[in-house]
Structure formats: C-alpha cells, structure tokens
Design goal:
By secondary structure, this protein is mainly alpha-helical. The chain has 13 helices and no strands. Helix 6 crosses helix 9 and helix 10 packs across helix 13. The protein starts with a helix and ends in a 38-residue tail after the last helix. The relative contact order is 0.11.
C-alpha cells in the first residue's frame, strides 16, 4: 500500500509540474513554445464551435462563431490549468495519507481556492500553503496577461483598419497602388512599406509569444490581419517587380519582414512550406490573374515596366517566399474573402498534434529578384 501511495504522490506532482510548465510556457516565456494543454484546449474549443458551422452556414454566421474562438479558449485555459493542479494535489494529499480520495479532493479544493485548510500534519500543511499560492499565482498571471493581449491586439488592428482607406475592403495590393497614383502620391507608398515592416516585426514577436492572438478576429467581419498582410506584401511585390520607377529598397525590406513573420507563424502551427524556394517555382497566383491586374493598373495610368514576362518572373520570385504560409494562415483563421489570399484553397493538410518548439525550421534568405 505504501508503494501505491508513493506512486500516486509522484503522479500528482507530475500533473502539477505539467500544468505550471504549460502556464509558464504560454504566458511568461517570450518565445514560441508549444504546450500540449494549451493546444488541446484550443483544438477542443474549435471542434465544438465547428458544430455550429456545419452545413450551409453563411460567412456571417461562421465569422460570428469564430469570433468566440480566441476569447473563449483563453478564458477556459486557466480553468483547465487549475483543474489539473487540483487533481495533482488531490493525488499528493492522498499519497501523504489522507483517509479517502474524497477527503483528499476536498482538501485540495479548499487549499487551491484559499477557502481554508483543515490539515493537521506539517507535510500536508506545507502542501496546502503551496497549492494556495499556486492558485493565486495562476489567476494573477491571467489578470496581467489579458491587458497585454488586448493591447497587442489593438495595436495590430489599428493598422488593419487604416489599410481600408488605402487598399479598399477587402484589401488589395493593386488597388493600393492605383489609389496612391490617382491622388498623385506615389512616393507615399514608401511610408507604407516602412510602417508595415515594423508591423510585421511586431506581429512575429507577439503572435508567436501570444499565439492566441492569431485567432482574435477584427471588429469588422470583412477585415483580417491575414488578408491585410497579404495585400501589403502583394502591393510591395508589384511595386518592386512590375511598376516602372526608381527602386524602393523599403518595399524589398517590407516583403522580407513579411515573409519571415509569416514563416515563423507557420513554424509554430506546423504548417509546411518550402524553406528555400527559387524564382520560377509555382505560386497560387496565375499568369492570367497577374495580367488582369497589370491591365487595370495600366488603365489607371500607373507606369509599368515594358517587359511583362520578366516582371511576372520577378513578381513570382517575391511571391513564392510568402505564398504558402499566407494562404495556409488564411485557411487556419477562416479569414474573409480577399483577392490572392483567402480566396484560394490552402495547399496543405494540418498534421496531428506534435509538440515541439517553434522557429525550428531553417529560414532562407528568399529568392526575390535582386
């Protein structure tokens, strides 16, 4: 019997350590680290919400349901952590000699939620103090975590909302170029590339450290951080490959910042892509779609490079760096319809749950034209 109690005590300690480790990896460590508990909670909530999106559900209904996904998962996650801690300490109390499993369960609940303890011996009393402090600590983590989460969300969404003014809704890279040309402010795009280079760097840091943000949807159903990112990247790729004029290094840097950020997010969610693409590799944008966009820009008076075949090769040379991660993330987040991103099928199937750190895939320097 002693051996059984020792084994149960060790199992309980392992449960507590597992829960605390998940909380620390999710809320404290500023790095893209996966957690089985966190991912399990998010996948379970997503599975339940999918029940309400079966059949011929409209996008409006799917968007309304998915708007609950991130917030509900985040609120449920601490409850799961506390439940595991409760179960773990219950095992530990029983292992120390509690008369029954129910008595250990009640003692654990009393200690965890600081309702008082009726323990007499020193080892159990010490465990009670530790559990009470752990419960308060987990709740304190959540209280400090949520303001940071929503502050980051607000910073992201301000740029997404401003893009509607520049690139329409849904956003489109060609439309942004045409609009700036029509108002006679072609040079204003330089500021856009600089601002979005910073936005992509912030996205990479925050959305891998706080992965729940990936699933927080915009206030407007037709807006999405994924489609906004795609529009800016396409606009920068068209500007540097197709539009005639002095080269803008800021556009090149914006593209690189964008595809590096999207690749790091793809790594975290185990989305496959070619880490070392080459100019000429296929992309989801067809030549016919590209020619239609070029014709629209030319009709609006935007100066284009004379050699369209070379411009197409240059454009695909940039697009191939972010094509697969962009479309996959649009599918993962159920983004609203937008040209050249969420309007095409993701070329991958999500793998089963695998626990590994993010950012492990080798990153290339890309294959954009020089």
């Amino acid at each position: 019997m002693v051996a059984v109690r020792v084994a149960v005590f060790v199992a309980g300690a392992a449960l507590v350590a597992w829960s605390v480790s998940s909380a620390v990896r999710t809320m404290v460590i500023p790095r893209a680290l996966q957690s089985v508990i966190a991912r399990g909670v998010f996948e379970a909530v997503r599975g339940v919400l999918r029940i309400f999106m079966r059949g011929d559900a409209s996008y409006e209904r799917r968007d309304a349901v998915m708007a609950l996904f991130g917030p509900v998962s985040m609120l449920l996650l601490p409850a799961v952590w506390l439940a595991i801690v409760h179960a773990g300490f219950s095992c530990m109390y029983w292992g120390l000699g509690s008369r029954s499993a129910r008595a250990a369960y009640e003692l654990s609940g009393s200690s965890l939620f600081t309702l008082g303890s009726r323990v007499g011996d020193l080892p159990s009393q010490t465990l009670g103090f530790a559990e009470a402090g752990m419960g308060i600590g987990l709740l304190a983590l959540l209280i400090t975590y949520l303001p940071s989460l929503y502050g980051t969300f607000n910073r992201r969404e301000v740029a997404v909302a401003l893009l509607e003014v520049r690139a329409d809704n849904p956003p489109s890279g060609p439309n942004m170029i045409i609009r700036y040309h029509r108002i006679g402010w072609d040079g204003g795009l330089t500021a856009v590339w600089k601002d979005w280079e910073t936005w992509f760097a912030d996205l990479e840091e925050t959305h891998t450290s706080l992965p729940a943000l990936v699933f927080f949807r915009s206030a407007q159903p037709a807006q999405s951080w994924v489609t906004a990112a795609g529009a800016v990247l396409d606009g920068a790729a068209l500007r540097t490959s197709t539009v005639d004029g002095p080269r803008e290094p800021e556009a090149d840097l914006c593209i690189r910042a964008g595809y590096v950020a999207l690749r790091h997010l793809a790594d975290f969610f185990q989305i496959p892509y070619d880490p070392d693409p080459q100019q000429g590799d296929p992309v989801s944008v067809t030549r016919e779609e590209y020619d239609d966009v070029c014709d629209r820009m030319a009709a609006a008076g935007v100066p284009l490079k004379a050699d369209r075949d070379q411009a197409w090769l240059d454009f695909t040379g940039w697009r191939v760096n972010y094509d697969a991660p962009l479309i996959a993330l649009a599918s993962l987040t159920m983004a609203p319809q937008a040209p050249w991103s969420s309007d095409r099928k993701a070329p991958f199937r999500r793998p089963p749950l695998v626990v590994r750190p993010g950012r492990s895939r080798r990153q290339s320097d890309g294959s954009g034209p020089d």
